[in-house]
Design brief:
six-stranded mixed β-sheet, alpha+beta, 279 residues, four-stranded antiparallel β-sheet
């Protein structure tokens, strides 16, 4: 049994949803069966767990506490190529404040209550008991990882875990950070659609939009290209059946603007994606 597999089973026994990471600390990509997130996943988007595919697809949503899944054949093959183990904090009822550098750690020590602390390669993870919405770049060097996100497992760390404070919840309310341009007014293009919907559950679309938001939020470079590819993926799956609404499109545009994109670029990327797909 590999060390990563053993760690995942130990996490699962502690009711912490675990998943493998490949080189670069990124999740395993969709298999052919799940290309463009076509498998549909679980009905309840709020909980982590395996999708309909037997393999560890779909990033954070693949995380599971089921030892039978973790030890299954498709997962065994993933563990052979895994470089690390990750977990879904929100699925374990936790929130991780990811402090990426010394300045962020100094800020946290002055402004946040002490809690369980885990050293990372460049900074620290501060773990709080309670879940909230995940968000990247809530201030310089600070990310929030809880629901619909994953964090690398680096051990239990030191200190006593305390309840999630209002000071952490307020970080997402204070976005965008001064380092990023404020979102511009969004003019939402007309949603694509017109054909009969073939999706199995309403949660299928919600899962796709949430994963698209996550993909954009986690982009560290090539933001323009990531936004376009994400729009293309959403439209290729949901663009012909009439499921997409203006609210869904606005969520995608908001995620892109939080990474510094302009409203004009969002509209252009959306239009180009529709043109590419013939919508």
């Amino acid at each position: 049994m590999s060390e990563h597999l053993r760690t995942a089973l130990e996490l699962a026994a502690s009711r912490i949803p675990a998943m493998p990471l490949r080189a670069g600390k990124v999740p395993f990509g969709n298999c052919r069966r799940c290309a463009d997130n076509a498998c549909g996943g679980r009905p309840n988007m709020k909980n982590a767990g395996p999708c309909a595919c037997p393999g560890p697809c779909h990033g954070w949503a693949a995380a599971t506490t089921d030892p039978c899944v973790i030890k299954s054949g498709p997962w065994q093959r993933a563990w052979l190529h895994a470089s690390a183990v990750a977990y879904h904090p929100g699925g374990a009822g936790l929130t991780v404040v990811d402090l990426d550098n010394a300045d962020a750690i100094t800020w946290a020590r002055k402004n946040l209550p002490a809690t369980q602390t885990v050293p990372t390669t460049r900074g620290e993870h501060w773990l709080y008991l309670g879940r909230m919405q995940s968000a990247n770049a809530v201030r310089p060097g600070v990310d929030i990882k809880s629901t619909m996100a994953y964090a690398r497992w680096l051990g239990f760390g030191t200190g006593t875990m305390t309840a999630l404070p209002d000071a952490v919840r307020a970080l997402t309310a204070n976005r965008p950070s001064p380092a990023r341009p404020a979102p511009q007014a969004i003019t939402v293009p007309a949603p694509a659609g017109g054909e009969e919907c073939c999706h199995r559950t309403p949660a299928y679309l919600e899962r796709g939009i949430a994963m698209a938001e996550q993909r954009i939020a986690e982009a560290r470079s090539a933001i323009h290209a990531t936004v376009y590819r994400t729009f293309l993926a959403v439209l290729s799956t949901h663009g012909r059946c009439g499921c997409l609404t203006g609210t869904h499109v606005a969520r995608l545009f908001t995620a892109a603007q939080a990474k510094g994109e302009t409203a004009r670029h969002c509209t252009d990327a959306w239009t180009n994606a529709r043109t590419t797909l013939g919508l």
